[in-house]
Amino acid sequence: MRRLTLALLLFALLGWACVARAQVLSPAMSQPLPEPGPQSESQSLFQDGAEYARQYDVPIEEAIRRLRAQAASVTATDALAERFRARLAGIALEHRPQYRIVVALTGTAAVPPEVIDAAGMRVPVLFRTGAKTTREQVLWAMTNHQAAIRAALPSPPSMGLDPRTGELVIAIGSATPAEQSAIRGRMSAIAGVPVRIRQIESREINLAPEGGARVEGINSEDGRRYYCTTGFTVTDGTRFGVTTAAHCPDVLSYRDPHGGTVPLDYLGQWGWGYQDVQINLSAAPLDPLFFVDAARTIERPVAAQRARASTRAGDFVCHRGERTGYSCALVELTDFAPGGELCGGACLPNWVTVAGPTCKGGDSGAPVFSGTTAFGILKGGSYRHDGSCAFYFYMSVDYLPTGWHLMSTAAPVITSPTLVAG
Known about the structure:
This protein is of the alpha+beta class. It is built from six helices and 27 strands.
């Protein structure tokens, strides 16, 4: 029984991978990692902090201090959002020129700067006034005018709220400056809120199953065998399972390094509107662990989860994909609707985007996390013509199927997520 449990844990948090291609490691993998085995909270922070220090050119001690403050400041930013709800355009974390929280507000009435204590770090809070619309107004516009916006452009665009400015950001393909100006005017007239055009050379796609290792199944549509991996371990109180993206093959088997296989019974998939998740059941209990290194030797526990409503632009998060390994970047948009028909039709603005450049086809289903906090399950990404990743987007762990929650070292916290719907 113990051998089965450990074998099943081996495929947690790997993402999709291609059998015929070599794995591409992120720059972060050049950082020295702890010895194999489950990480402590401090080891998890050190690994993520090393990547933060590399990206922002700060000492490792300062990087860890900021990541601790990031986690500890959630309660304060939730309170700020409620306090300024009538004027709130958005909340974001800034990392340069200093680490601080920025609250964007409508109107011109100034609000004096504040300071919050977050895990012993004094974090400045700056209030920027002058936003034209509130977050709630932009979300209402996205939800109620999405169909008209999609119909007014040659292909259905992605869109999201920029919490730094309160603008509705609409992503389009190639266009001249004059064409962008004309599109912006038309979209603003339709939505009734300020619009900013973001030009991206290619639109969003699900990070397709390209084959890989550890878990395999037959795609019922084309009859081909694909390999995929999963994100987090979950339970409904009596059963245990693992998550992956809903566009993974239904029936999966784990293939261990010695050639043995363990079947994983298909429970169901949820892939409409605001979800992209599948659960396959384990015959044995599972532990709340996931891998964070390319070699799948370093495990990290899940101790908490972050709700989408409490996620901020500027949060520093990581993911571990089979194609790209371990990498970290900043959250960009927390109210995002992918373009095209990726959600069984139009997507609701309930997705979260994370900046590139590290994502590739094959990472679908990978977990998104920071330290020992689970954020989400990776769905898709947007690629430029040169193949580079503009951003990826994930489903928040709030949106696990009803009755299921993450396996955690802490007592389970079952939230009631807020959906943006028409």
